[in-house]
Amino acid sequence: MAHDRTVTGGCACGQLTFRAQGEPKRVGLCHCMTCRKISGAPFNAFVIYPVDQVTITGEVRTWSATPETERCFCPVCGSQVFDRDAVDEIEIKLGAFDEPSLFTPTYEAWTKRRETWLCTPDLKSFPENRGDIP
């Protein structure tokens, strides 16, 4: 993948958009209760970029489940588009990208909360947080 690659996406109504440049740091799945509740799905699929590689356009509303994470969503349609954390990373939801199949997860976190019917045999799995994956 080229370092000059640009990908785009946004919310369901189009008011909140993003442009990410370069390659992401990592791609994963999370089965924690917060991710399950905010997405209304059994897991959250995301890509992590350094915050300086992402440009956000439009109005954003936020809330925080923990002091280190800011959950960001569109105030018009309510779409969960991305999260920001205290480590200067931005977590963009895979479903918010304009194109499907751009990224493939390589790990999953909080597998102790994973649905028993969900099988992810090719991913590195962590019972709780991801540990030391860069």
UniProtKB/TrEMBL annotation:
Residues 7-108 form the CENP-V/GFA domain. InterPro entries: CENP-V/GFA, Mss4-like_sf. PROSITE patterns: CENP_V_GFA. Keywords: Lyase, Metal-binding, Zinc. Pfam families: GFA. Belongs to the Gfa family. This is GFA family protein. It comes from Microvirga splendida. The lineage of its organism: Bacteria, Pseudomonadati, Pseudomonadota, Alphaproteobacteria, Hyphomicrobiales.
